[in-house]
Amino acid sequence: MVGKPNVGKSTLFSALTLVDVPIANYPFTTKSPNRGVTYLRFNCVCRELGVKDNPKNSLCVDGVRLIPIQIIDCPGIVPEAHLGRGLGLQFLDEIRQASALIVVADASGGTDLEGNVVEPGTHDPVEDVRLVEKEFTEWLLGIISRDWPRIARAAEAKQASLAGEIARVFSGLGVDKEHVDAAIMRSELDEGHPTAWRREELRRFVDELRRLSKPIIVAANKADVPTAREGIKKLVEAGYETIPCSGEAERALRMAAERGFIKYRPGDRIFTVIDSSRLNPAQKRALDALAGFMEKNGGTGVQDLIDKVYLNVLGYIPVFPVEDPVRLTDRNGNVLPDVYLLKPGSGPRDLAYKIHTELGEAYLYAINARTRLKLSSDYKLRPGDVISIVSAAKRGS
């Protein structure tokens, strides 16, 4: 989770994780990255299959499987962060391990690019997102530029693969050869003559590489502020995948639920007061205001960030592996014990490797537990599949 200072990143992080972090209305509240666990929501297959599950690597609450996800709240990024200004280098170093970026923008337009408070509606939140994109791209450009003459000469002389060498330079950022090949194609550059690439062309290439390797979703935060409507409109018109949200509203709801005042699951469109007699007048007014905001916006939008970044932006596939395809259990009799997230295009063998390397190496075939039929070798996993892996190791045991 990234963005300029004072856009509510720490509040969003606290709402998603219920980890207590410093929160204040001034720049650089976050001095170092905060790490926590939040949850992806996915409809569990237990009700569809008519079983009572025993989750082990996740939770199941009222038929909703909650899958743990690590989230990192990075220090704010300011202009020229790639040169070391502010705390930007910490931001840039932390994103190495991220699968995707949630870019938090101040939809209300109430803070400038430095994170200073301004009149709401006077700052364009699109600039909040473009700042992150620009600084990330310039950082990548700086990394590749140091080694570019050697890489370009070696590739042009056929002494090395251009895509392979670039992927090696960026391997610590989760960049692979497929990302590089796609970025070269999108940039419309001459792969056969990289020594002729000008600096602007190299910048265009790494910009595409950033989009492919670290896709983003925009959290249009402070959506409960009246001026946010125009800011959200601008973000959508700029072409960004945008989720209007209020970190403050979500944090208040989760804390109220934890204290037993309301019944609320992250992502619910409404909440239910358990016992109004326990609430003082101020708490009642606050909950009434939250109910009005949620009714107008279909919830707080915060949980949607996690769900959409994994299921839509990254396209991950939740799959339920079982050992016994009839009883839907593992070897210890636990029903639907686990759920794994697989990359788009993954097959049963990929699931086997995800579970355990030895299971993947001894893989024979897989069974669809719903139909009890053997799956073809080219079968692509689908969200909610219940799969039993048959391996040589199993057969011999």
Supply the key terms.
397 residues; alpha/beta; Rossmann fold; Ubiquitin-like (UB roll); 3 domains; five-stranded mixed beta sheet; 13 strands
Rg, please? 24 Å
Total separate domains: 3
> What structural category arises from helix and sheet content?
alpha/beta
Largest sheet: 5 strands, mixed
Q: Strand order, main sheet: write it out.
A: 10-9-13-11-12
Q: Which consecutive residue ranges, at least 5 long each, have pLDDT under 50? A: 26-30
CATH class of the largest domain: Alpha Beta
What is the multimeric organization of the chains shown? single chain
* pLDDT averaged over residues: 90
Alpha carbon gap, first and last residue:
45 Å
- What is the number of helical segments per DSSP (H or I, 4+ residues)? 15
Q: How much of the polypeptide forms β-strand, as a percent range?
A: 15-25%
How much helix, percentage-wise, in residues? 25-40%
